[in-house]
Amino acid sequence: MSNADTWETVKSELREVSLLYGAQASLAWDQQCYMPPGAAALRGEQMALLSRLVHERLTSAKLGRALEDLDGHVDDATTQRAVELLRKDYDRTVKLPADLVERRARAGATGFDAWIRAKEASDFAIFAPHLQEHLDLAKETAAAIDPDGHPLQVLMDGFDPGVSIEALRTAFSRLQTGLSELIEAAGDAEDRTLGGTWPTDGQLAMHRKVAERLGYDFDTGRMDLAEHPFTISLGHQDVRITTHVYDDDLLGGLGGTVHETGHALYEQGLPRALFGTGLDQAASFGLHESQSRFWENAIGRSRPFFAWMKPLLDSTFPGHPATVDSLYRAANRIQPGPNRVKADEVTYNLHIIVRVELELALFEDRLTIADLRDAWNDRYQRYLGVTPADDAEGVLQDVHWSGGSFAYFQSYTLGNLYAAAFHAVLREQMPDLDARVAKGDFAPILGWLRENVHQHGRSLDGTDRVKAVVGQRDYVEDLLAYLWGRHGALYGLTRPR
Length: 497
What we know:
Strand order of the largest sheet: 1-3-2
Strand content: under 5%
């Protein structure tokens, strides 16, 4: 068989694997949106079976031999990159026993159900045994892949290749110092919350219009409600978003929708022509988060955005008292609180630092699941000056651990860092950015992201893709300068030299 024929065989196999992934995603979406709670055990078995089938395909000796034959023997750089990544993924996946893959999938389904019940009851004890199982399985997974590596680093390599724990520690330290200075300078400012009651049906209708205007294609997507907002791709022609709305918090729900729309825009902009090569995927989770955080914060919290949105708000909620300035002030208040999803963008990364530190402690055996709730509350008091009122507001607030997704949280801060660098460069290249946003002319912004990020898929790792777009920059400084620039102006603050 020629190399060209071998490559076509590999792509055919990968296309079918992608279809199986889509089936898994469909079941996961249904579980979080519509599935009856009594079906949790059945869903666990369904997910376990699909996970085993995917694992068998991705670790077959036939695929391994084909990738070995192709490595270094293809004619173009794109195919060579695809083969190198597939070989890397193959070498990582083949080390995982099939029964471990099944156990993780089954635990993910039952763990999510337990998390829902625990959060409703605000009782961590309901979820704790499932979290312990997830932790044990994650450690077993890391040890199977690289028994000599730091377990969290091994897992993190699957989300953000090229990012080290030590680099994170350094960035987190600088961020914590810089953010604490800004939070302290803002002090106890006047109440800037928006208030009011906002019927949820009206919010959802407005959110749909906002997402569509930003560029989200509803012909290949849909929007639903979920306990915890998420975006999921069932394939290039089916990218779905979910949101959560609150009748007493207009901006909390809106921010979540704009965030998930950012994720979906990335998924809808990935190179469909490369389906079956592995290059049609996002470059990293940190880069994925940069897209959601860019739209949510740099655009969605800006004054020009609210100037554009005000007529839409007026038509949806006639007689409401909000003004462009009150919306802008409320969206950019500095108000330490216990909730990550609703956090302002100044305090947000402190929430991430808490989670990553706790994960490190768990994987380094310096912390047990039994002590996790107290450790969570202690860090919130030390870093943000608040203590969660209960478990639902505290250790149970995030969905990630319910499915065993450890080593993901750093992606949010990486996303903020990358987004700040993108925003700085975009402003240089598009001086009329604010004027465009105020008119609702988002197409050039999306076009810039499509050209520089989306269309390239996984042709470079996330860290290298960011450098290709912005060059050598200090991302921590970009983020701090952006935050001080926006919030300093709002609060009348000058950044310390």
